[in-house]
Amino acid sequence: MRIDATDVRKTYGDVTALDGLSLSVPSGSTFGIIGTNGAGKSTLFRLLVGHDRPDAGTVSVGGADVTEDGRRIRERVGYLPEHIGFPDGLTGREVLGVHRATRGLPKDGRIAAAIARVGLTADEADRRVSGYSNGMQRRLGLATVLLPDPDVLILDEPTAGLDPRGVDEFHAIVEEITKETDATVVFCSHVLGEVERLCDRAAVLHDGRVRASGPVDELAAGASEAAPAATDAGATGESGRDAGGLRAAFREAVGDDAARRAATDAEEVAP
Ligand SMILES: Nc1ncnc2c1ncn2[C@@H]1O[C@H](COP(=O)(O)OP(=O)(O)OP(=O)(O)O)[C@@H](O)[C@H]1O
């Protein structure tokens, strides 16, 4: 399912979260949205699943307007918010059971399949979620959104707060999903390396607008050609490792200071 946002504007009181944002995500792509804190990523995701409405502009998923067809779209879209809570008294498997029942999904082995897909062991699935680590909670969250076999996965900073091993393991799960299904996957991140690893396309979001968008290779190559000095400084400067041309595209789009802050974020979670 493709996703289109056109001239989207969203304000909260005096704060303009999205300021004429336009974006197209082709069906079946793995699309990374990179942005600094407050760029508007979570706001955009809430609009994409109809949890909030734009003040102006349109958002469509699979050609259907989200503000008119929200309920039907949400049946086909798996949305993993940045912060997800589970009832403490339940086991992981029971949480999935509640989600299955609430969504009216059949008892056809999909819970066991989702548990296996996200790499939770049977023993872990039968433990109470109150004892889950952050990484296990993320896996369980992903399992809940996989239950209906969604056509679109929207993941809001899915690796934030995970340790390097947890990040790697989560990446491997997403890679497997993108290889084995036709799902369109959209996720946002501060970390350029994970967008380079997982995505075929990306957009740089800054101050509520898309500053650059396209295939990851082209974004990286275009910026390297246009700004060789930025590439040199950005690729190896703050992080001491070559993060590739996407960092140059990001610097070009958001400016040095914002890019430096994002590089620092990346340091915290990079292996
Ligand atoms: N419910 C809300 N009420 C008021 N302001 C909000 C609300 N939601 C978002 N904002 C503001 O809108 C702007 C965009 O926020 P948003 O959470 O979408 O950014 P983000 O890119 O997801 O940031 P982060 O990386 O920190 O999660 C920020 O200035 C934020 O403070």
Give a list of the ligands: adenosine-5'-triphosphate
In angstroms, what is the radius of gyration?
19 Å
**Going across the major beta sheet, what is the strand order?**
6-7-8-3-9-10
Main sheet properties: 6 strands, mixed
* Highest-level CATH class: Alpha Beta
Please state the structural category. Answer: alpha/beta
Q: Determine the mean pLDDT.
A: 85
Measured between the Cα atoms of the first and last residue, the distance is: 33 Å
Region (Disordered): 222-248
Keywords: ATP-binding, Nucleotide-binding, Transport
GO molecular function: ATP binding; ATP hydrolysis activity
Domain ABC transporter: 3-232
Put the structure in a nutshell.
This protein is of the alpha/beta class and 271 residues long. It is built from twelve helices and ten strands.
Describe this structure in words.
Keywords: ATP-binding, Nucleotide-binding, Transport. The chain is built from twelve helices and ten strands. By secondary structure, the chain is an alpha/beta fold. Helix 7 (164-180) links the parallel strand 7 (152-156) and strand 8. The protein is globular. 44% of the residues are buried.
What is the element layout, followed by pairings?
Blueprint: E1 3-12, E2 15-25, E3 30-35, H1 41-48, E4 56-61, E5 64-65, H2 66-76, E6 77-80, H3 92-102, H4 110-117, H5 122-125, H6 134-146, E7 152-156, H7 164-180, E8 184-189, H8 192-198, E9 201-206, E10 209-215, H9 216-226, H10 228-236, H11 245-254, H12 256-269
Parallel strand pairs: 3-8, 3-9, 6-7, 7-8
Antiparallel strand pairs: 1-2, 1-4, 4-5, 9-10
Helix pairs in contact: 4-6, 9-10, 9-11, 10-11, 11-12
The structure holds adenosine-5'-triphosphate.
Residues 12, 15, 17, 35, 37-43 line the site of adenosine-5'-triphosphate.
GO molecular function: ATP binding; ATP hydrolysis activity
Domain ABC transporter: 3-232
Keywords: ATP-binding, Nucleotide-binding, Transport
